[in-house]
Amino acid sequence: MVFFSSGCVDTIASIGGTLCLQLLLLVRAAIAAAPPMALPGCPEWCGNITVPYPFGTHQGCFREGFNLTCVETPGQPAKLLVGNGSVEVLSIALLDGTVRIRSKMLRSVPD
Question: What are the residue boundaries of the Wall-associated receptor kinase galacturonan-binding domain, all occurrences included (predicted)?
Answer without folding.
Answer: 42-101
